[in-house]
Amino acid sequence: EQVTESGGGLVQPGGSLRLACQASGFTVRNAFMTWYRVVPGEEREWVARMSGDTDTIRYKDFAKNRFTIYRDNDKNIVYLQMNNLKPEDTAVYYCNTPEGIVEGNWGQGTQVVVSA
């Protein structure tokens, strides 16, 4: 299993970004996928998650009504659409599965900087 995150960048407060998590070695349609982030000086925290079989979706409180997790089964990608970004959203964003976490297999992440 491998994931590759992309789509980060520098954006002004109130702006939007769409992060992508390209999966290889497994199918996102059948996987429990979670987006995480590491804010400078803090521990990794989950942001949004989506189950494979039931399409159950959950968001951390700070992400509700601003972020949307969804997937493209044909491309085997899980996206995180982030709107109304705030400076406190500045972080490195990662995606992973429970299996990947157990194996200690993380992608390189994608850096998001929200700044005027």
Molecular structure report:
This protein is mostly beta strands. Helix content is 4%, strand content 47%. It is built from 1 helix and 10 strands, in the order E-E-E-E-E-E-E-E-E-H-E. The chain has a 6-stranded mixed sheet. Strand 4 and strand 5 form a beta hairpin. The longest helix has 5 residues. It is globular.
How many DSSP-defined strands?
A: 10
Q: Return residue spans where pLDDT drops below 50 for at least 5 consecutive residues.
A: none
Query: What is the percent of helical residues?
Result: under 10%
Order of helices and strands: EEEEEEEEEHE
Q: Helices and strands: which structural class? A: mainly beta
Radius of gyration: 13 Å
Distance between the termini: 37 Å
- Summed over residues and divided by their number, the pLDDT gives a mean of 95
What order do the strands of the largest sheet run in, or round the barrel if closed?
2-10-9-4-5-6
Largest sheet: 6 strands, mixed
Number of helices: 1
Shape: globular
DSSP strand (E) fraction? over 45%
Concise synopsis of the structure shown:
This protein is mainly beta and 116 residues long.
Core attributes:
116 residues, mainly beta, six-stranded mixed β-sheet, 10 strands, globular
Give the helices and strands, then pairings.
Layout: E1 2-6, E2 9-11, E3 17-24, E4 33-38, E5 44-50, E6 57-59, E7 67-72, E8 77-82, E9 91-96, H1 98-102, E10 110-114
